Amino acid sequence: MAQPEQVPHGWMRGRRFLLQHSEEHGEFYKGRGFGSGDLVKVVMVSRFGDCGITKDLKAENGYTLRVSPKALMPIEEIPDSVCKKCFYELADHDGKCIEPVKLG
After folding, report:
1. What percent of the chain has pLDDT over 70?
2. How far apart are the C-alpha atoms of 94 and 91, rounded to whole Å?
3. Domain extents for the chain?
4. Less CB within 10 Å around the terminal CB: N or C of the chain?
5. For residue 65, how many other CB atoms are within 10 A of its CB?
6. pLDDT band for position 2 (50/70/90)?
7. pLDDT in tens, 18-65
8. What is the rounded CA–CA span in Å between residue 66 and residue 28?
9. In the chain, count of helices (H) and strands (E)?
């Protein structure tokens, strides 16, 4: 299994984010106890392109919900080695960014 540093957005593991509004997944988030603007921590980065998140900011593992990286808005500074639009490491960047969802 791929390790966090081996996937294009592995830098996200262990960092805090705000969960963003999603027209497509909003009801699903609510059904799992999450809502737009919730402070979450990424505790798992999947080789399949998603992140495991939890509201327990002290947790090291054990996610409650899996989301796309674009569903998360950083509240901490993004490393210089990361594309600010799609959160992928610049080394793995293909130039086809998907804009993150806007909070709302």
Report:
1. 79
2. 9
3. 4-92
4. N
5. 21
6. very low
7. 998 777 666 777 778 888 889 999 999 887 778 999 999 999 999 999
8. 11
9. 1, 5
Residue 16 in tokens: 């805090």
Q: Annotate 29-54 with DSSP letters as a single string.
A: HHHTT--TT-EEEEEEE-TTS-EEEE
For residue 1, pLDDT over 60 is answered with no
Domain 4-92 sits in CATH at 2.30.30.140
Across the beta sheet with 16-19, the strand order is: 65-67, 51-54, 39-45, 16-19, 72-74
